[in-house]
Amino acid sequence: MNLGEKFPNLQVLLVDDDIHSLDILSTFLAELGVGSIHQYSKGQEALDFFDAQREWKGLVLCDWNMPEISGSELLQRMRTKVPEQPFIMVSARNDEESIVFAKDSGISAYLLKPVPLEELYHKILKVVHTQGSYFSAI
After folding, report:
1. Is residue 108 part of a domain?
2. Does 2 reside within a domain?
3. In a domain, 6, yes or no
4. CB of 132 within 8 A of CB of 113?
5. For the chain, what is the domain count?
6. Smallest Cα–Cα separation from 50: which of 17, 87, 20, 21?
7. Cα torsion through 54, 57, 59, 62, rounded to 10
8. Lower CB density within 10 Å: C or N end of the chain?
9. pTM assigned to the model
């Protein structure tokens, strides 16, 4: 499958409490040529990274349902510091209420698990192009 554009300058903060999903998404991101992947299985670890790396500019790819700090809570905490933070939510939840809540939360994109490589590519491409001013510093 030829997906065209690669993302060698893109940094991704990948957060998922399911180690299997984390491995699959990390492999997919590597196949898409993502330059730097920081992966965490806990929301607090990802938040600690985000807080410590003030100059970090990248895309957050995060699971919705996680213990302690959910994906939506992580989004809210990050956006209080960086309101334009690009954020793709990944979830197995496909009900209308969840999708509406995610959109109302201001996420950049929403992906359903299991995530196909091609769909991940198109969502990243969309976010990179629609939030280009954020990524222009990369």
Report:
1. yes
2. no
3. no
4. no
5. 1
6. 87
7. -10
8. N
9. 0.93
pLDDT in tens, 98-121: 778 877 888 999 999 999 999 999
Instruction: Give me the domain span that covers residue 42.
Output: 11-135
pLDDT at 11 exceeding the cut of 90? yes
Indicate whether 137 pLDDT > 80: no
- pLDDT: is 4 or 63 the higher one? 63
How far is 64 from 88, CA to CA, in rounded Å?
10
| CATH number of 17's domain | 3.40.50.2300
pLDDT at 2: 63
Give the chain as a DSSP string: -------TT-EEEEE-S-HHHHHHHHHHHHHTT-SEEEEESSHHHHHHHHHH-TT---EEEEES--SSS-HHHHHHHHHHH-TT--EEEEES--SHHHHHHHHHTT-SEEEESSPPHHHHHHHHHHHHHHTHHHHTT-
Asked whether residue 42 is assigned to any structural domain, the reply reads: yes
